[in-house]
Amino acid sequence: MLKRFISYYRPHWKMFAIDMCCAFVISAADLFYPVVSGNIIDEYIPQKNLRMLLIWCALLLGIYILRSALNYVVQYFGHMVGVRMQADMRRDLFSHLQSLPFSYFDKNKTGAIMSRIVNDLMEISELAHHGPEDVFISIVTLAGSFVLMCMRNIPLTLIIFAFIPFLVFFAMRKRIKMNNAFARRREEVAGINATVENSISGIRVAKAFQNLDNELEKFACSNNSFVDACRQSYRAMAEFFSGMDLLSNLIMVVVLLSGGLFAIYGQITPGQFASYIVFVSMFFNPIKRLIQFVEQYQTGMTGFKRFCEIMDEHPEDDDPGAVEARDVRGNIRFQDVTFTYEGDKNQILHHLSLDIREGDTVALVGPSGGGKTTLCHLIPRFYEINSGAITLDGVDIRHLKRASLRAAIGIVQQEVFLFTGTIRDNIGYGRSDAGESEIVEAAKRANIHDYILSLPEGYDTYIGEHGLKLSGGQKQRISIARVFLKNPPILILDEATSALDNVTEQMIQSALDELCRGRTTIVVAHRLSTIKNADRIVVLTDEGIKEQGTHDELLERGGIYAGLYRSQFRA
Ligand code: ADP
Ligand code: MG
């Protein structure tokens, strides 16, 4: 996994190398101060050498100006490396998500996927640039100080360095505890958000059922857990900071004591003593960075693991040797098809065979849950069948390129999804290269043109979150216009009018009748009046196809269909 992570550095290696070089010089520059201050105390002050004092101070000033310039580069390039890597990963993730099959989206909620694209990648980006920088700078500073200090006095250096592992160990432990507490706190906040969202969305139901106490109680519960999580996190934070404070000051005292003793007994000079004090006061920064790195590594890698999990999901590849579906006529045949949803035990379709001839309208009826929608979704290969075959004009759909197969099929569903954007964008979604006149023609055929013109902004009317709210029937007509524009040889109407009232349904029905003309159509409807004229009616239940024939044949037969029909028309 680390290798995969590192591979994302490759396109930005130049920027990254510059960043690291600057980081090296910056940390090396920091080592000058203690050395110079020691020299000043030991040599130039006793000699009253004003010239050397000025030279060294000027030199230090120059070094610091350079350091600041390099710091600018590190801050800027370092962050840009992180951001670019994040953008690359997000691009890969997004395009991979687009290629994943329906089954993936059945299992994973939109919110969870969003949080991966946004939050996880942010963490990864932080790790990507701060990680190597932190490790590098800390090691250079600590190792450099160690060497320079040993050059002055080895025993004293060892005494001081002996404390560092304790400091690091303590800091790590407390930091981890603190982070866990903060993570829990974030979860609690998410819990509160979810509770509020659910309650507010359902406020009408809650009021109607007078269930407000219940809602308050649920909320109080989330709210209390939040306070509890905060208490834990602040306690951990207090332990960390007060402990670190004590330990670091303890080290300073140890330096004064041991260094003072060494100086009194003439083992080191006062200048060297001063250098030690400065060196040690510089330690805390690299140690802090190392600890920060460990934390960032944990969260960043957890995020990266989740990123990899999605990237490793199998996309919908075309089979090798798949061909384009050309000049589709629309003969669809299910041959002994068995289908089970992934991770589900129930067989939805069991050795089902069905023949749909070019240009025919075949209606699917039957109880809810009988598998009508499932059957429709198998034709564009939204899901993979377990056994048997589905053929289009005699060719197994698995041997066709998915894009060309789907281009041949238009779907109108009960639930219409319109994208945020203008009405024109939404109709134009049917075919990206369509011109204005074609869009208008499609709208006319879907009986929505006049309505669109009645809007002040016409086809430019914005729909979506902050745009125009359309009624169910209007939305459905836009979705029908979308399919008119696409003009596919095969049409699937899955309960296209089921959510609409009778009057609206009739208005839409004429558009649908027009849409079906000259196409192979599979129509699912629970209002049987709409499918009376189908060439064939197929009754599908969870036991498979129970009856098929024309409306008259099925009525005569007096089976399930006849029963359904009579119950709907008794009124
Ligand atoms: P119909 O359209 O006839 O009402 P469906 O095809 O929607 O029936 O559903 C048939 C069965 O498949 C139902 O039992 C339903 O619970 C199940 N089902 C539908 N969609 C999924 C899915 N995405 N994952 C798992 N099971 C599903
Ligand atoms: Mg259905």
UniProtKB/TrEMBL annotation:
Residues 332-567 form the ABC transporter domain. Residues 17-299 form the ABC transmembrane type-1 domain. SMART domains: AAA. Keywords: ATP-binding, Membrane, Nucleotide-binding, Transmembrane, Transmembrane helix. The keyword Nucleotide-binding applies. It is a multi-pass membrane protein. The chain crosses the membrane at residues 12-33, 53-74, 154-172, 246-267. One of its GO terms (molecular function) is ABC-type oligopeptide transporter activity. GO terms for cellular component: plasma membrane. PROSITE patterns: ABC_TM1F, ABC_TRANSPORTER_1, ABC_TRANSPORTER_2. It holds the Pfam family ABC_membrane. InterPro entries: AAA+_ATPase (IPR003593), ABC1_TM_dom (IPR011527), ABC1_TM_sf (IPR036640), ABC_transporter-like_ATP-bd (IPR003439), ABC_transporter-like_CS (IPR017871), P-loop_NTPase (IPR027417), Type_1_exporter (IPR039421). Its main location: membrane. It is found in: Cell membrane. This is ATP-binding cassette subfamily B protein.
